[in-house]
Amino acid sequence: MIAEKISETTKRHFPMELGINEKCANLDDVFIHYAEIGKGDPIIFIHGTGLDCRMWEDQLMYFSKKYHTVAYDMRGFGLSGRLNGGKYSTSSDLNKLMDLLQINSSNVVAHSRGGRTAITFALEHPEKVKSLVLGGAGINGLPLSNEFKEIKYEVALIAQKLGIDNAKRVWINSALFASALKNKVVMKKLREMLNDYEPWHWLNQDKEVRIKPEAIERLEDIAVPTLVILGTLDIPYIQNTANILAERIPNAQLEIIKDAGHMNNMEQPQLFNSLVSKFLNSLPTYSK
């Protein structure tokens, strides 16, 4: 039954020579595209808004030497199925994907919007999370700062009035990516992912189901070891979010990456990988 829900795909994110396997998982109401490589303790990577699993290429290649690494495109992003206006849960999607991949519990590494999913998943399915790594993460229920609110409002307005291409230009040139765009390699990858993004979220009401009470009110309930990673050049809202996570999650620690912004794993991949590796190696043996 499980095998019938996993299928090969002709569409790929990564070159064949990297040895990354890419497949499609049928979650009944949506198809989820995922990439995996390596054997060992599992690590699942979750991307941010407008991006897809390509943002984790450096991490997949590095951690697959020791771990079973999985990165997937969330519903509505990358090569996964599109949103259709109905209600959905990214936490439920992750839960179903893990079941299909026969992963009982995993380390979860998440970025930005993906961080919101990871936090919710840890609250809804604590038995399935060994540890959390939250890089530039968001939290459901935390009000947006005026700066971040203006960025999102402007992008949505331009998408509706002037078209998607203009909105994408404003989004990638916003303060959120200012640091990343100074790196030509990172800039190229970001533009490739954003060019492939079909921004349903900018044109329609997002009906993602959130837990109640919201995650911001339940951070103290997260019991797993948590690493919070923050780039010094990230926007103030994300810096504030990182501090909240580190202060209120009981078993959390904060690591700072200098000269990196919101895309800290892409801007400083070696340092990011080193911090995550050190964190995972420090976990109790029962968590591995």
Structure description:
The chain is an alpha/beta fold. The protein is 35% helix and 18% strand. The chain is built from 10 helices and 9 strands. The protein has helices spanning 57-63, 90-100, 113-124, 146-161, 164-172, 184-196, 200-203, 236-248, 264-267, 269-281; strands at 6-8, 21-26, 31-37, 42-46, 68-72, 106-111, 129-135, 226-231, 252-257. Strand 4, helix 1 (57-63) and strand 5 form a beta-alpha-beta unit. Helix 2 (90-100) packs across helix 3 (113-124) and helix 4 (146-161) packs antiparallel against helix 5 (164-172). The longest helix has 16 residues, at 146-161.
Helix amount, in percent?
Answer: 25-40%
Alpha carbon gap, first and last residue: 28 Å
List low-confidence stretches: none
CATH architecture field: 3-Layer(aba) Sandwich
- In the CATH hierarchy, the third-tier topology is known as Rossmann fold
The domain tally reads 1
Structural class: alpha/beta
| Lateral arrangement of strands in the main beta sheet | 1-2-3-5-4-6-7-8-9
CATH level 1 name: Alpha Beta
Q: Please compute the radius of gyration using only Cα atoms.
A: 18 Å
What is the overall shape?
globular
Strand content: 15-25%
Q: For the residues shown, what is the average pLDDT?
A: 95
Furnish the topology, listing elements before pairings.
Blueprint: E1 6-8, E2 21-26, E3 31-37, E4 42-46, H1 57-63, E5 68-72, H2 90-100, E6 106-111, H3 113-124, E7 129-135, H4 146-161, H5 164-172, H6 184-196, H7 200-203, E8 226-231, H8 236-248, E9 252-257, H9 264-267, H10 269-281
Parallel strand pairs: 4-5, 4-6, 6-7, 7-8, 8-9
Antiparallel strand pairs: 1-2, 2-3, 3-5
Helix pairs in contact: 2-3, 4-5
